[in-house]
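#struct-pred

JT: dropping the chains for the assembly here, can someone run the whole complex?
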Amino acid sequence: MNALDGKTNYFPYLLLLPALALTMLIVAWPLAETVRLSFTNSSLNPVENYVGFKNYIKIFGGKFPEVIVRTFYWMLISVTFKMVVGVAGAMLLNCAVPGRNLFRILIMPPWIVPIAIGVFIWSWMYNGQFGMISGIGQWLGIFAGPFEFLAYRNTAFYATIVTDVWVGTPLVTIYLLAAMQSVPGDLHEAAWTDGASRFYRFRRITLPLIMPAVATMALLSAIWTFNSFDIIWILTEGGPRGSTTTMIVDTFKTAISRNRYGEGAARAVMIVVFLTSFSAFYFYMLSRFAKRALDKTGGKK
Amino acid sequence: MINKYRWYEYIYIYIGIAIFVTFMLAPFLEAFLVSMRPLSGIFSVPYKIITEDMSFDAYFSMWHSVPKLHIYIMNSFFIASSVTIISLAVVIPSAWAFARFEFKGRDAFLGGFLAINMVGGAVLIIPLYKLMQSLGLLNTYWAMIIPGAAFTVPTGIWLLRSYMMKIPISLEEAAWVDGANRLYILRRVILPIAMPGIIVVAIATFITGYAQQFLFALVFNSKDVLNPLPVGIYQFFGRQTVLWHELMAASLVGILPVLIIYIFLQRYIVAGLTAGAVKE
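RK: done, full complex below.
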């Protein structure tokens, strides 16, 4: 409560109105419309009929479950790498060594430039005949001959992950770096005075204190990675033979490339359902871990 | 002292940083190398980093093969700037409402806004297309600007709300007691005090609006003169002869302006992204 509250209590809603109008128009209404479309046989054909759960039954009878598993697999590997590289990178850039300000600037470009442009360059890097990775790999004797990364199911899958990690890591790093810098210096000094080693201080002071930031960033990354479209679309369009088709690519292919709006909408709805369930599960696990950690240290409440 | 490293620790740290920076910058180096080679030299086997036929020719010839490059660059900036202005216009009042007022359903509204993060643009692409069609916005800048702005609103509200919550309320209260109305307070008290936070949100929004220009432009726009840089360049892929060296040159020239701006503003960017988030 404060003085600004005054007598008229509709004022805060007035302040929210512009943002509400914009998000209702662009997010809420289209979301509701997607749900409605998912129960129709909408396509290029102007006549659309309600078909009940037919779309859902159809997609779950096909390859869709496989796509769901692949999406989670892709997302979990990618987010794990982003967090590991991000924590390691933030640690390194937090070291008081000459030139660290320069290095902090140098790691950000993948996040600054348009994602699509970065991915064009990666599509060249993965080229077997002329790309850098295959070329250097051949020098070092890792590959016997030209290796076409995007032509095989397995390597295409991991190649799209590497590019996704490349795009996502700078933001994770800089965020965790800030978290590390907000750790009070006297904690480190006190431990240092007591003779704690650098590694011990990292494990017992830095890591626990940045854990909330890590947990937040991991969830945000997971959501963004789950919805990541540009990277896979430009590199492989979901191929070869469906090996990089995640839920979002699958939805786009069904709805836009094949013009099956109804069926595409059903796939889109499942993205929201799975992502929401995953986030809810994540929060549940997080609160359990937090509780257990508190119990362990004896800190009640 | 506490931050003093032994000589071998310096070596470990620098090796680690070198690997990290290499991973982040290697693609740009590769793009630069490709842009320096003549088309015949690109397709030479085995792979060589430095070749004798390197030149800056592609940077001149690309203006013929990608004649609208400067237009794409301008479009990208125009779209990202418009996204930023629209986003700020709706974010500032909302952030103030969430930071300062108590009202029914406040947490639910905030949660609702944050939940937008869960829905990607690609999920909503079918109804969004129909919406743009019925509003007559297909093949206009608006079709790329309005959806782009809407998806930056949640993060903007979150960052700015956290910033405003740290501002002492006393100034606003003093103005209120002096009889200023609330819109006046928003304009004359909040805007100036929160300006550092607003700048940070503006930069973060601009980068998002700039980096994520692909899907909406690809689906909602078919007029080449309106295309932002990524889609403008994307069209040249999949042609019979892809002029890789010129495309790489065009990509690098295209991203140069934003990289230069970034170098000048990086201090604010780093501060801003972390201001709202970490303290929560």
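JT: nice. Chain B touches chain A through 106 residues (CB under 8 Å). The radius of gyration of chain B is 24 Å.
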